Amino acid sequence: MGRFQKILQDLKDRDVGESDTVNVVRDMLADLFGFDKFKEVTGEYAIQGTFCDLAVTNKERNIEYLIEVKSIGLTLKENHLKQAVKYGINAEIPWVVLTNGITWEIYLVNREHKGDCEHTCSINILELTSRRGDDIEQLYVLCKEGLTNDLMRRIYDYRKIVNRFNVAALIQSDAVLKVLRLGLRKLNTDTKVTTKVTTTEIKALVFDVLKRDV
To answer: What is the rounded average pLDDT of the residues 108-118?
Structure first.
């Protein structure tokens, strides 16, 4: 990983174009993510008369995910994502990856609602370190071995459950409000308020705390 971090930083400093970025992404797929770049990575996957930048296949030669590559100096934007999602919809491939070599954004394409997609995870290669196990696990989602374990889908399913909206809903549930009410009573045993008012007040406070984010 360290070797590619140096390469990516050098390419960014030189502000290389898209074709050079595609070349280093192809090498990363081989040397970092474990794919055979001659058999399992292709730049010749045609989608309605045009070609996506790269497509990753499994051993049965079925497409696992499409990759839309932008120049390493570009910040990935909404219009870049729309292009990647369009490829996924037209090719009926559920997973698309948008990258500039440094940042890798993984999306699940919603084929029932054309144009919609859901963000699964984001990886910044320059921010990772091999000394942290969590960082190595981030890379695993794009690796060949990760595909055999359907890791993209598992991470997507996990984040559908573990997110700020579900946490906010749970915090405002009666069970949690009851725990908060008891905790506040312990802070000041002289305060005597009815259960109904206390729950209402706490719920309003919780909503005020959460509303900025969720």
So the answer is: 75
